[in-house]
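> forwarded from #structure-qc
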């Protein structure tokens, strides 16, 4: 399993906004801090705004900020929005399944349990907890 670049950038964007919750931040600041493409970041911000994780402000003094309190955003919610279902094997994918063990494979049950445990753990961690008392991260993200 590997987190996609989009999910990583989404989490980093939310962390940046959470640390700088006292002001409106600009996309260029986030892109510069993480050495990310502004175009790629724009796509991520668009989805984060659609899912109400971010609130965007248009215009000259515009930018973005968290769409709700950091305590109300879980890592699991963000991962689900960006990763959807993690298809470890053909049996997790939509559409036709060609495996002859489809429906009776115990590996599928094991992987389903593992995914449930993975998301359960992510659901118990909020954005606020990721940054709370994280002095070094706050120093880096405030300095931007």
């Amino acid at each position: 399993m590997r987190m996609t670049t989009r999910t990583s950038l989404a989490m980093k964007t939310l962390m940046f906004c959470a640390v700088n919750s006292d002001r409106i931040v600009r996309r260029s600041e986030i892109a510069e801090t993480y050495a990310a493409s502004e175009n790629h970041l724009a796509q991520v911000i668009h989805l984060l705004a659609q899912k109400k994780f971010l609130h965007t402000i248009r215009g000259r003094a515009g930018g973005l900020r968290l769409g709700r309190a950091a305590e109300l955003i879980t890592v699991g919610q963000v991962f689900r929005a960006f990763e959807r279902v993690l298809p470890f094997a053909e049996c997790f994918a939509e559409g036709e399944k060609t495996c002859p063990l489809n429906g009776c494979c115990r590996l599928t049950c094991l992987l389903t349990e593992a995914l449930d445990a993975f998301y359960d753990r992510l659901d118990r961690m909020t954005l606020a907890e990721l940054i709370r008392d994280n002095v070094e991260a706050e120093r880096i993200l405030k300095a931007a």
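QC bot note: The radius of gyration is 18 Å. The chain has a mean pLDDT of 90.
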